Q: What sequence folds into this?
């Protein structure tokens, strides 16, 4: 009779990397369905192209480098789906394909693959597309435009606010009947799954809390200073990609800080950047750049926010 | 009863599945006297003992067979009467071969000590008796108890903490001791207080053992020993760790590289307290201990009072033997226990549990790269950054490891329990600690 020898502990918690990734995928399904319902079959095609392109790129790279196949860890599928959700339904399929290849190849594998990338791969792909296809990336479709004879283009709530000072009603923002990216239409369909994920410890609650909190505080500050010119904090929260970014992009395990204090700083920094970009830059939306910018600071944040070890002075 | 909100505990830590129901209601029964015992001369933290007997010698149960002049050590006693047949390096449950004395029994019983000793013993006498009885911490770390009871010059001990947490899953030995040996446990606690001059005694028990909490409180009232306090603690692993228990009960932090006595505390396990009482009151050396034999691989799980040196095989046989599914033998609990390749190893003073697991219990996780999920950071009771420490160890960056506080790790394994990437974090940390100690 031979017995298994292994180091302690001999019992493990149920979470594994693929389990966590697949739970994130499932949590994104409601927002994805909403995007398809609102923007039509084109949105569905974009989602499929991105997810398949991510899996294909992952497969080819891992094969070329003669590493063990990693498709089953779920991380490539998450990158593909997240990227699709940040695209305008007007983006051509081949552009989405290119963006996804860039996301997985450059955003993830150039840095060493899962666990080693500095920047959120989906956002790297989106940044690439924003530079390579600026017109397609900023042309938006009105909700349910596919029911009309000719597709109706429309401005996003943030662009309406910024360039025309038109405020979209909260109820519309909350339930998502607005122009925008596929996954950023309905705040509530992001929020409910995200709360479940935070409760189950799949995503950390500190980052979204400090992210959204700092947007409310800083956005609120400017609104109080000049309510005629700047939107109120609730509008900041519900419009654009903030919900998707705060709950599913900023909380990306690999590219967010390790320490609790670091997570607060990371979220707060991203929140401040969003408000600054939205209010004072040439762009209507700043979620993508706020997160990518803070990703770069993560190693530094980790280094300077080491927890106080029990029994030691700081 | 207090609600979980205001119940005491430490910060972070985990809530594993406890699996204690198999044995928690089973009374401790004495195991059969073995025909042969293998008694390692190193069963404690500190120096190995030298043998005091040679092959061919007749020894009596309770006779001292190993000792040393080193302070941090504890003598070893024969657990049965008989003949020494072998003194050699033999397998020890910690995984290496240790100089051990093999005794073939002749069935003779030990002569009972005549009467009990005078209760009025001096601190010096208590320490001497405890040392001579070979008492070490029975919670698992096996630190010599007489050393704990000897506060160095200038250190004042104000509190004795009796550790009844038993936070490791599966194990119920301490739980049963608190229920069945309550009076001796209290007597031992008072003797420890007497030896150290401590004014306060607190018994810390987790709230998953309500009957032990009740029994201890009732017994304290009956014995008019109500100056002894009982602290009800929220069940959480690793509360039984000295640093966690002191933080939970007294809100004091043992300094890095320091000992509990640096904050005026001595922590004593409930089984150790009973051993102290037995040694002082009846003159019994430590030759038996309570062992929980459990897990899905054991046919009849039990709590047994076992003689030191009995082989795992004999004990398992007394518990109905192994199931078909038995695939992993562990000495200790599932969190910090050591897996064994054979049952031909002896029970030592630190053996609180023999745990036999099945393949469904020991599902190993597939290894992934660290995804920086920070679960290890969130749950580390010492507030370390385990994923970093593990990576430093893997890359042999030992000075970075030390700089990030790697030596403060208590090796509880919470990080590895949580890690979704299946990285053996605590294993890497132990390796780096070993490397560092070898460099010095």
A:
């Amino acid at each position: 009779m031979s017995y298994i020898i292994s180091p302690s502990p001999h019992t493990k918690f149920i979470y594994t990397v693929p389990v966590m990734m697949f739970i994130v995928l499932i949590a994104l399904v409601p927002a994805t369905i909403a995007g398809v319902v609102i923007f039509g079959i084109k949105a569905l095609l974009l989602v499929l192209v991105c997810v398949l392109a991510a899996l294909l790129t992952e497969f080819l790279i891992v094969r070329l480098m003669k590493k063990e196949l990693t498709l089953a860890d779920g991380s490539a599928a998450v990158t593909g789906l997240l990227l699709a959700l940040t695209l305008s339904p007007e983006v051509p399929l081949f552009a989405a394909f290119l963006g996804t290849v860039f996301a997985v190849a450059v955003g993830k594998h150039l840095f060493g693959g899962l666990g080693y990338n500095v920047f959120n791969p989906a956002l790297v792909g989106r940044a690439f597309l924003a530079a390579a296809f600026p017109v397609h990336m900023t042309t938006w479709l009105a909700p349910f435009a596919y029911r009309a004879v000719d597709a109706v283009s429309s401005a996003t709530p943030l662009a309406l606010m910024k360039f025309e000072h038109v405020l979209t009603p909260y109820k519309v923002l909350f339930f998502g009947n607005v122009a925008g990216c596929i996954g950023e239409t309905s705040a509530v369909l992001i929020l409910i799954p995200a709360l479940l994920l935070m409760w189950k410890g799949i995503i950390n609650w500190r980052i979204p809390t400090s992210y959204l909190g700092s947007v409310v505080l800083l956005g609120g500050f400017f609104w109080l200073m000049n309510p005629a010119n700047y939107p109120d904090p609730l509008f900041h929260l519900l419009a654009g990609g903030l919900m998707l970014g705060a709950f599913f992009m900023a909380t990306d395990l690999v590219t967010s800080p390790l320490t609790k204090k670091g997570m607060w700083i990371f979220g707060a920094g991203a929140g401040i950047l969003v408000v600054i970009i939205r209010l004072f830059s040439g762009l209507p939306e700043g979620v993508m750049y706020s997160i990518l910018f803070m990703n770069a600071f993560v190693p530094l944040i980790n280094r300077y926010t080491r927890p106080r070890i029990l029994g030691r002075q700081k | 009863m207090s609600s979980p909100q205001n119940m005491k505990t430490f910060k972070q830590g985990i809530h594993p599945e406890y699996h204690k129901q198999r044995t928690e209601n089973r009374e401790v029964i004495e195991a059969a006297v073995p025909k042969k015992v293998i008694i390692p001369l190193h069963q404690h933290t500190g120096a190995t003992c030298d043998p005091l007997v040679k092959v061919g010698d007749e020894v009596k149960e309770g006779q001292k067979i190993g000792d040393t002049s080193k302070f941090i050590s504890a003598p070893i006693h024969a657990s049965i009467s008989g003949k020494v047949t072998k003194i050699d390096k033999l397998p020890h449950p910690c995984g290496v071969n240790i100089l051990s004395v093999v005794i073939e029994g002749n069935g003779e019983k030990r002569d009972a000590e005549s009467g009990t000793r005078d209760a009025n013993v001096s601190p010096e006498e208590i320490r001497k008796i405890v040392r001579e009885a070979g008492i070490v911490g029975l919670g698992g770390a096996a630190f010599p108890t007489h050393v704990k009871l000897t506060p160095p010059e200038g250190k004042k001990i104000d509190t004795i903490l009796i550790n009844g947490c038993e936070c490791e899953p599966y194990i119920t030995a301490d739980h049963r001791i608190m229920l069945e040996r309550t009076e001796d446990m209290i007597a031992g606690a008072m003797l420890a207080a007497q030896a150290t001059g401590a004014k306060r005694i607190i018994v810390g028990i987790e709230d998953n053992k309500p009957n032990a909490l009740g029994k201890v409180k009732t017994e304290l009232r009956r014995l008019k020993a109500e100056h002894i306090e009982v602290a009800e603690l929220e069940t959480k692993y690793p509360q039984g760790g000295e640093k966690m228990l002191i933080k939970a009960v007294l809100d004091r932090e043992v300094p890095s590289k320091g000992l509990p006595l640096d904050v005026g505390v001595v922590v004593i396990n409930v089984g150790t307290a009973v051993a102290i009482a037995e040694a002082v009151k009846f003159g019994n050396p430590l030759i038996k201990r309570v062992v929980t034999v459990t897990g899905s691989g054991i046919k009849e799980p039990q709590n047994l009072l076992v003689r030191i040196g009995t082989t795992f095989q004999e004990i398992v046989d007394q518990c109905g033997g192994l199931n078909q599914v038995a695939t992993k033998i562990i000495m200790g609990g599932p969190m910090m226990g050591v897996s064994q390749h054979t049952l031909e190893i002896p029970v030592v003073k630190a053996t609180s549990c023999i745990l036999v697991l099945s393949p469904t219990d020991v599902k190993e996780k597939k290894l992934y790269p660290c995804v920086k999920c920070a679960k290890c950071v969130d749950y580390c009771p010492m507030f370390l950054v385990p994923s970093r420490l593990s990576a430093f160890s893997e890359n042999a960056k030992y000075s970075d490891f030390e700089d990030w506080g790697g030596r403060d790790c208590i090796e509880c394994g919470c990080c590895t329990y949580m890690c979704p990437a299946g990285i053996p974090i605590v294993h890497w940390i132990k390796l780096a600690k070993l490397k560092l100690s070898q460099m010095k």
